[in-house]
Amino acid sequence: MLEFKNLKKSYAGKTVVNIERLTIRNGETVGLVGNNGAGKTTLFRMLLDLIRPDSGEVLSKEENVATNDQWKDYTASYLDEGFLIDYLTPEEYFIFIGSLHNLSVAHVGDYLKKYEEFFNGEILNSKKYIRDFSKGNQNKVGIAAALMQKPALLVLDEPFANLDPTTQIRLKSLLKSLKTTEKLTTLISSHDLNHVTDVCDRIILLEKGLIIKDFYTDENTLKELEAYFSE
Amino acid sequence: MLSTFLNHQWKDFWRSRNKTGSIAAQLLLGFFVLYFLAIAIGAGFGMPVLIEKIFPGKNVIEVFNGFILYYFLFDLAIRTQMQELPTLSIVPYLHLNIKRKTIINFLNTKSISSIFNFLPFFVFFPFCFIKIGPTLGFLTASMYILSVISLAIFNNFFVLYIKRKAINNIAYFAGGMGIIAGLAALDYFHIISVRDASNFVFLQVAKYPFLALILTLAAGLMFKLNSDYLSANLYTEELSTKNEKKVSTDYAFLNRFGKVGELAAIELKLILRHKRSRSSVMMGFFFLFYGFIFYRKELIDSDSFGKMLFAAVFMTGIGILTYGQFMFAWQSSHFDGLLANKINFKDFIKAKFLLFTISATVITILSSFYGFLSWKLLVLHLAAYLYNVGFGTVMVLYFATLNYKPIDITKRAAFNFQGTGATQMVMGLPFIFIPILLYLPFGLINKPYLGVLCIGAFGLIMLFMRNFWINLITKLFEQKRYKIAEGFRA
User: Measured between alpha carbons, how far is B480 from B490 in angstroms, rounded to an integer?
Assistant: First the structure.
C-alpha cells in the first residue's frame, strides 16, 4: 500500500525525518510513537504531499504522491485544526467534504446518523461555527469527516488527544471494526501508549527522524514501550 | 504592575510572528501621525490669521468658539473608525493574583496615549495663549484649555465605550458620519447651528469660567461608566465573540457550476463570515462614490477618458483588487486541509475566477448609476470591466502564487497591514497602469474612443484566452504549493 524510500527532510541543518525504507501493507493498522520532535507529523505531511521531501519519495499504491493526485481518491486524513474550514458549521463542512467525493446531501445525512453516538449530541444542529467548538469537538468533526470519505488509507495525527474518555473508547472500537469490515489501512500517531498498542497491530518507534523499532504487537508490547520511554 | 504589562506588550510586538508587517504598519502610522501633527501645529499657530482671512470682518473669538464643537464632533467620527481598543490580551492575567482594578487601569491609561487625544492640544492651545489669554484673561484661557482636554477625554472614553458595546464598528462609523453630515447640512441650511451652539457654550465659559468644570465632570462620568462596564464584564467569554445563533446556508445559484461552484460558495462564506473580508466588501461599496471626485463635467464633455480611467478601473475592479491582493492567504488557516483533500487544483483556481467575475459584474452593474451623468461613463465602465475580468483577475492570481504570508482574517481591515508585503505593493501598479498605457497612444493622437475600445478589446481577448490562463496559473500553483503551505503554517 505505502512505500517510503530514502525519505529525508531537515530544517536548519537538523534532520527531522530520515527513513531509508519502510513498507506498509494493505489492511495494516500502524501506530507511530515517539517523543516530541521525533518527526511523526513531518512524516505524515510528506505522505500527504504537504511538504516536499529533501530527497526520496513516498509511493502510495506504487505512485509517487508528489507527482500524482490519484492517492487523494482513497486517502482521508486529519492532522490538526488546520484541516478544518473553521468558519463553516459542521453540517456545511460535512456536505462540502462529501461533495468532493460525489456524495449527495442525503448521503451525508445518512452517514452522519450513524455517528450520532460518536458525536454525543454536541456537534449536529448546534448552530455554531466549527471555530466556536472546543478542541475535542473540533477533533471529532475532523475525524468523522475523514471516516466519511470511505478511505482505503486513513491518516490520523494524535486522534485521541483532547477527546473525552468515552469518545476515546468509541474511536478505538470504531477503528478496530473498520479494519475488519473495510480492510482499511490506518496510520496513527499517538502519545498514548495504551491506546496505540490496543488498536494497532504494528508499532513503529521514531526517534529524531530515525526508525528505532518496528514490530508487530503482542502482549509484551506495552511493557516494552514503557521500558523504552522511561529510560 | 503597569510597567510589567507594558513590558509584556513590548515583547509581544517585537516577538510577533508578523514582525516586519507590524513594524511597517507602525512606521506608516508614524508618518501619518507626524503629518497630522504638522497640520495641527500649523493650524494652531496660524489660526488667528487664518480666521481673519477666511471670515473677514467677523469676531475672531466667536469663529473660534464655533469651531470647537465641530472639531470634536468630527473627531468622534474619525475615532469610531480609527481608534483601536486598547488590547492587552488579558486572558492570561485574569486568573492570577492581579487586582481587577489594575488591569482596568492599565487598559484605560493606555487608551489615553492615543494620538487623537493630543491633536486638539496643538490645534487649540496656541490660540488660547495668543488670543484668548490677552483678551479675556488668564483664568478664562486656562478654562478653555481645561474644556478642550475634557472634551478630548470625553470623546476618548465615549468611543471606547461604544466600541466595547458593539463589535461591528462599520455601521457605527456610517451612523456617526451620517449624524455629523446631517448636523452639518442642518447647519448649512440654517435650520440649526452647531456653530451657534458651540459659540454659545464657549461664550458662557468665557463669561463664567468655572462652567468648564461641567465638561470635566462629563468626561469623568464617561471614564467612570467605561471602567464600571469593563469591571463588570471582564470575563473572557464576554470579551470574545457574541453568542448568536449560526445557521447553515446554501447558495443555490452557485450549484450550477458543479465543484467549482461548491468551492466558490465556500469562499463566499469565508468573505461574509469574517470581519476583515466583510469590511473589505463594505469598502468596495464606499468606493463606488469615488467617481464623483474624478468624473468632472469638463472631463466628460472633452472626452478626457485618460483622466477618468483610474477611477473606472478602480471602481469596477475593487473587489478583485482588495480581495485578490491577499489571495490564498485568506484561506491560510485551513490551507493544509485544502491541499490534502480531494480538490482538483484546476477547480480551485477556476473558483477564484468565478468569484472575481461575479464580484466585478455586480459592482459594475451597481456603478451604472453614473450613466445619469453621461452615457460615456457607461462605455468607459464596460471597457474597464472587461479589462478587470479578462486581465486583472489573471494578474491578481499570478501574484497570489508569490504570496506566502498568512493573515488572520478575524481581525478588522482598517489599518491592518498583516500579510502586506512587497507583492501587495507591487501588484497595484500594473493593475492600474496597464489600461492607462493601452489608452495613452490613442489619447495622444486625440482618438479617445479608440483608446477605450482598445482597453475593452484587450480585456475581451484575455477573456477568450481564459482557459490558457487557468492552466498557466494552475501549473504555477502546483509548483509553489509547498512554499505557500509552509508560509501559511508558520
Answer: 16
**What SS3 class is residue A51?**
coil
Q: Which residue on chain A is closest to B343 by alpha carbon?
A: A100
Under 8 Å CB-to-CB from B435, ≥6 apart: which residues? B309, B313, B384, B387, B455
* A96 reaches B (C-beta below 8 A): yes
Cell numbers of B418, please?
498583516
Contact status, residue B48 vs residue B130, Cβ threshold 8 Å: yes
B171 Cβ contact partners less than 8 Å away, ≥ 6 residues apart: none
Residue B159 to residues A51, A230, B118, B284, Cα–Cα distance (Å): 47, 58, 16, 25
pLDDT in tens, A20-42: 999 999 989 999 999 988 899 99
Residue stretches of chain B with pLDDT short of 50: 168-169, 240-242
Please name the residue of chain A whose CA is at the shortest distance from the CA of residue B341.
Answer: A72
Distance (Å) from the alpha carbon of B161 to chain A's nearest alpha carbon: 26
Domain boundaries, chain A: 2-74+151-230, 84-150
- Tell me the chain A residues in contact with residue B247 when contact means C-beta distances shorter than 8 Å: 89, 127
> Distance (Å) from the C-alpha of residue A203 to the closest C-alpha of chain B?
24
Contact between residue B140 and residue B44 where contact means Cβ atoms under 8 Å apart: no
Residue type, A211: I
Q: Do B340 and A100 touch (CB under 8 A)?
A: no
For chain B, the average pLDDT equals 81
Size of interface A-B (CB pairs under 8 A): 77
Beta strand segments in A83-209, E: 153-157, 185-189, 202-207
Measured CA distances, B288 to A3, B185, B285, B353 (Å): 57, 22, 5, 22
Show residues of chain A in contact with B249, CB under 8 Å: 92
Residue B21: per-residue pLDDT: 61
Question: Rounded distance, CA A96 to CA B247, Å?
Answer: 15
Residue carrying C-alpha cell 464633455 = B301
pTM of the model: 0.69
* Interior angle at CA A73, CA A69 and CA A77, nearest 5: 95
* Domain map (residue ranges) of chain B: 2-239, 252-489
Cβ neighbours of B340 in A, within 8 Å: 48-50, 72, 75, 77, 79, 83
Q: Is ipTM over 0.95?
A: no
> In the CATH scheme, what is the code of domain A2-74+151-230?
3.40.50.300
| Contact (CB, 8 A) for A205 and A40 | no
List the end-to-end C-alpha distance of chain A, in Å, as a whole number.
34
B246 contacts in chain A (CB < 8 Å): 89, 127-129, 132
CA distance B11 to B303: 56
